[in-house]
Specification:
The chain has 386 residues and is mainly α. Strands 1-2 form a two-stranded antiparallel sheet.
């Protein structure tokens, strides 16, 4: 029984570690900009797919490179998800600040687009997107140098948008006719893909009769590094100081010359990059699919809310608590431990499935928020009024 408890606690902590990496970025973004980013799970998915692509690339190189792919996949997942987040902030979210409902709906739409994007992406679609961006945004950049650009901006968009779309569509159609299935076959499709952990992460570490998988130990160590990195960045760097200043008082920070727009963009890119790292970690635990992010997004938001908006320490405590509770209830470990008390054992046996465990955890969270609506570490002082 003790062995089962220790095994359950370790598995729950490893799940909480993944939630914590994802929640770190969400806590920073939500705490700074008040943006409810429903596409955060899809940024995790992009990080997971980046890991899959890097793995396949390193397999072509053969051994020993194939066993080191994860060391290259982590920074690339951070970079890909960070760039996607930066594009999202610059292209959509910056126009919706102060309008939380519109932001929520817009990011939800983006999440659906990204899910369909990974299902459908092929060479034709990729070439079409690149060509459209070059034509449309290139024309906008060139014409923006004109002194009267603001006056003709509407006409430029009205002309270049359909023209760019038309040229990209015709080019894609011609390519598909010329090369048939060679360029129209989806890269990933709707089915899940598998990421295989390197050989040095496939073993177990026996401690007190419990086998601790190296994969989960690696994820916990990665989480510790991410938390330490974020803490050092926020506390010791110039841009970290600017982020904390804008979080506490945006108006005063702008008056002091801090470029709040750049701070917003950097913060969103940082939070998105951390989501990509979380996706890389998730890919080591199971298969990766277009809906991977949806499996974590709700729990990630719960971590931020329970921990306290913008509070990294609160997010750490909440992530470990939610991850551990979810696993102990869902795996039936808690019901097994309560076998001597039959009514409680029967009660938790009813919830001993993945879906029902989430129901129980959400119920516990709702009850907790009735007592502490501000979370474990609620905001105090100027940050509440800002």
């Amino acid at each position: 029984m003790l062995t089962g408890l220790l095994d359950g606690l370790f598995s729950g902590i490893s799940i909480g570690a993944v939630l914590l990496i994802a929640a770190l970025g969400l806590a920073i973004v939500f705490g700074l900009m008040g943006v409810i980013n429903m596409a955060h799970g899809e940024l995790m998915m992009l990080g997971a797919y980046t890991t899959f692509v890097v793995q396949n690339g390193f397999k072509q190189l053969g051994s020993p490179w194939a066993e080191t792919y994860i060391l290259f996949a982590l920074p690339l997942a951070f970079l890909v998800a960070g760039i996607a987040g930066l594009i999202l902030e610059r292209g959509v979210i910056r126009f919706l600040y102060g309008r939380p409902l519109e932001t929520l709906l817009a990011t939800w739409g983006v999440s659906l687009i990204l899910q369909q994007f990974v299902r459908s992406i092929n060479w034709v679609l990729l070439i079409g997107i690149v060509l459209f961006c070059l034509l449309f945004f290139g024309a906008m950049w060139i014409l923006s140098r004109r002194a009267d650009f603001e006056r003709i901006r509407g006409w430029v968009v009205a002309v270049m948008l359909p023209l760019s779309l038309g040229i990209a569509a015709v080019t894609g159609s011609v390519l598909s006719q010329m090369y048939k299935l060679a360029v129209t076959q989806p890269w990933f499709g709707a089915q899940n893909v598998n990421v295989t952990a390197p050989k040095w992460l496939r073993g177990n570490l026996p401690i007190f009769g419990v086998s601790l998988p190296f994969t989960r130990l690696f994820i916990i160590a990665l989480t510790i590094l991410c938390v330490a990195g974020v803490y050092i960045f926020l506390q010791r760097s110039t841009w970290g100081l600017r982020i904390r200043a804008v979080t506490q008082n945006r108006s005063m920070s702008a008056c002091l010359g801090i470029p709040t727009a750049k701070v917003d963009a950097l913060t969103f890119a940082l939070g998105s990059g951390l989501a990509g790292v979380a996706g890389c970690a998730v890919s080591l635990l199971g298969s990766v699919g277009p809906n991977t992010g949806q499996n974590y997004i709700v729990n990630t938001f719960m971590v931020v809310v329970v921990g306290g908006v913008g509070k990294l320490v609160g997010s750490m405590v909440a992530a470990l608590a939610i991850g551990t509770a979810d696993y102990l209830i869902g795996s039936g470990t808690l019901a097994l431990l309560l076998t001597p008390v039959k009514p409680l054992a029967d009660f938790f046996t009813f919830f001993a499935t993945t879906s029902m465990a989430k129901v129980m955890v959400f119920a516990l969270i709702i009850a907790f928020l009735q007592v502490r609506p501000g979370g474990i570490f609620p905001q105090k002082g100027r940050s509440v009024d800002a």
